[in-house]
Amino acid sequence: MADKTLVQRYVHVLTVVACYWFVSITLVFVNKSLLSGSEKLEAPLFVTCYQCVVTVAACYAIRAAARSFPDRISFPSLELDMNIMKQVLPLSIVFVGMITFNNLCLKNVGISFYYIGRSLTTVFNVLMTYFILGQKTSLSAIVCCATILGGFYLGVDQEGAAGSFSFSGTIYGIIASFCVSLFSIYVKKILPAVDGNIWALTFYNNVNACVLFLPLMVMFGEIPIVFNFQFLTSINFWFMMTIGGIFGFAIGYVTGLQIQATSPLTHNISGTAKAAAQTVLATHWFMETKSSLWWLSNMVVLGGSLAYARVRQLEMKTNTPVRTVNKV
């Protein structure tokens, strides 16, 4: 019986990890198709905003299901509270920047280079932890960050040598990495406003984002682009847009599920391994030929990321007191 229980646990973990990989990789390929495919819409803000609308709709759908099946589904109340919306607003501004620059990066670079272009999140995590939280980082963690920076530089160099380097795409990737780091820090600060419920935070965050995107779309002239889009009545276009929104909502769920089924460290390792698989899959899917140094740059970034995750795990185990400094 014990062996059966152990097998069931392994099957559960493998199923959860497989779901995370499937949702994450599919989301990247769907967004790439929407942003630079045959039916691409030159309005990345509108594409991102629509995905936020789908997320809000998904929240309402699950809430309705929770009311019908309270014993099976648990979901928080979704009554809009203006006070909570105001408290969540700073996080929403960072969130809008994060998903916008993430999609702009994906629009301008290939999926195979996407991981390298977005690889500086760990480095920004260390910097933000010091400048915002006042926490110092160990020498081992700094060495890991230096390794990631070296891999990033080599990857950019090799992308340029191959003639496929996008300066704007790389800059968007760097800004997106910064926003991801800032977002993770603000989440911890804002969660108490929604009683620590991540689904309530997701709901309010995406409602705010929908509102924030409207003036941005007007400012960047996307409204006439959308109305004049030749595939605006295409069922395939709206199907892909909706699938992107559903998978954008689902990634939040499967990420939490993977952390719950494994651990934060295993989640980081799984995410890093997923990025490697995504890179290999993209090169085969788009029939790209890359140099040995280009592959080496990916291995360096992957190795640095894995090493950083391991270093952080060991530091948490030792419970070393963290020295803090006041940042005013």
Label this structure with key terms.
328 residues, mainly alpha, 12 helices, disordered C terminus
Tell me the helix content: over 70%
Mean pLDDT: 87
Number of helices: 12
Structural class: mainly alpha
Radius of gyration: 21 Å
Largest sheet report: none
Helix-strand topology string:
HHHHHHHHHHHH
Inertia-based shape: globular
Q: Summed up, what is this model?
A:
The protein has 328 residues and is mostly helical. 78% of the residues lie in helices and 0% in strands. The chain contains twelve helices and no strands.
Please tell me about this protein's structure.
The chain has 328 residues and is mainly α. It has twelve helices and no strands. It has helices spanning 2-36, 44-68, 82-108, 111-117, 121-131, 139-161, 167-190, 198-219, 222-227, 235-261, 264-285, 292-318. The radius of gyration is 21 Å and the shape is globular. The termini are far apart.
